[in-house]
Design a protein that fits this description.
single chain, 163 residues, alpha/beta, Ubiquitin-like (UB roll), Translation Initiation Factor IF3, 2 domains, 4-stranded mixed β-sheet
Length: 163
């Protein structure tokens, strides 16, 4: 990193007395120790610089970013589709899939697709989705209640927070 256009910098680091130094003095301090002067906060007045080994600094920075990325969890939205006349066995089969998705921490979007004249059976679809949600209440919470959007009745379940 090139530090330019500054007369003085605030220096921090191990075995260095923290304080504001003229730029050339700070650079000399770093060279005496066989280390580099690295600008940490360029927007501060005066800019904050640290006396460290630059390669080690970059390594630690990458390691920290990798650690943060590993801790990050991405929740996918898994879809489960039903028809308004879905049988008990099919419902149980799809319940097992939904259980697996919720235990893995994914959201589940369950929807009933009405084809042709089956739109007449809206209440069947709603009952089916509510029954589905009730069966999964130990693992998930209903984020949005069943609502009709065009030819689909949609409900979203999210996994319960682990204590």
């Amino acid at each position: 990193m090139n530090i330019r256009g500054v007369n003085e910098v605030r220096v921090v680091g191990e075995n260095v007395s923290t304080g504001v130094y003229p730029f050339m003095e700070a650079l000399r301090l770093a060279e005496e120790r066989g280390l580099d002067l690295v600008e940490i906060s360029p927007t501060a007045v005066p800019p904050v610089c640290r006396i460290v080994d630059y390669k080690k600094f970059l390594y630690d920075l990458k390691k920290k970013q990798k650690e943060l990325k590993a801790k990050q969890t991405t929740a996918e939205l898994k879809e489960i589709r039903f028809g308004p006349n879905t049988d008990e066995h099919d419902l149980n089969f799809k319940l097992n899939h939904a259980r697996k998705f919720l235990t893995e921490g994914h959201k589940v979007k369950a929807f009933v697709f009405f084809r042709g004249r089956t739109i007449v059976f809206k209440e069947r679809g709603e009952i089916l989705l509510l029954k589905f949600a009730q069966s999964l209440e130990d693992l998930g919470v209903v984020e949005s209640m069943p609502k009709l959007e065009g030819k689909r009745m949609i409900m979203i379940l999210v996994p319960k927070k682990k204590k």
